[in-house]
Amino acid sequence: MKIIVPVEGASGISEISGSLGRAPYYLFYDTEVGVATYLENPVADSPSGAGVGAAQTITDAGADVLLTLRCGDRAYEVLREAGIKVFLAPSGDAGSGIEAYLQGRLSELTDFHEGHHHGAV
Amino acid sequence: MKVAVLSGKGGTGKTMLSVNLAAASGPSTYVDCDVEEPNGHLFFKPDESSEETVSVLVPRADRNECDGCMACVRFCRYHALAYSLDRLTVFDDMCHSCGGCAEICPRKAITEHPREVGVVRTGRSGDVSVYTGTMNVGEAAGLPVIRRLLEMTALSYDENIFIDCPPGSSCSVMECIKDADFCVLVAEPTIFGAHNLEMVSELVRVFGRPYGVVLNKVIENERDPSEEYCLDNGLPILGRIPFDIGLGRICSEAGIASRENVVFERMFREIYEKMTEMVSR
What we know:
heterodimer, A: 121 residues, alpha/beta, Nucleotidyltransferase, domain 5, five-stranded mixed β-sheet, 24% helix, B: 281 residues, 11 helices, elongated
């Protein structure tokens, strides 16, 4: 199973990011291999649509599960379309979050916030 | 002369001033670009003669043609497109209608389709042509409606066009002032008002537009931070509108002061003449 978590740093004990779209990195953990890798978020500084861009990165990475503190409605639409399950992560370090998920202690995120994007054109 | 009336915050008197300027300056065109909540028509009560819907183009992919190369997804700077499994998802309200995705698609699988975002109404009130733009409820961006309004009124034969701008100093205001011959900044006598005046005055200077300030709700012998800002920074003052109960009453009853009262007519007329003088200089 492939788990993805938005994180603040790309090494060591990384804090789960408070923002799905604006997180600088995504921690990618493949339970079969047991190795964590980091993906850079190409849309972290995007003026708009970061959530959708992030969802695309997560989809392209082939993740099965996303652990996050928050998720916007548009990003969720993309993730749901791709069959990726979204779980509410506890704040703190990503490793503990993944552990909690694997122990079945996390529940699916049910509250998706509205987009913050600014007006088009 | 094309005059844009703007202010850094709502409630300073943009609509009151632009409506009265239009009414006091002879045959003219009044354009309500405050498309989130256009109020000018409440004063003019125009005989509405036409209504036109405003649409923008949004992309749709032909699933049989799309092979999932994601060239469009990578191209879209606004991330209005996402691809997952075998389907392209389009977030219409994030699309800027640039048409780039359709252009870049190697299989020509994307076509553009109109999506209604608002409406423009036109009508007459005395010798004023009234144009009102209204966004559809739930829309995020008013710019397409504003652009259509300005396109339509660019063809006006009237000598004067008054553009009632949305509040603030964002891109929709920029659209309204970029082709204006003159900008009128309306300011309130409060610290907050002066702060917002500073923001819009910076904006009109960036655009290199000639401009002047109208101080509204002026109370005699009381401190006016907006006036102080003008004096300290050399901003030309076009006029002072008093915090007057008579004017307030006419406005609150959706009347047009310069049509109802000669004193007010003269006051607005003088503001108009002052800006004409500045433009011709």
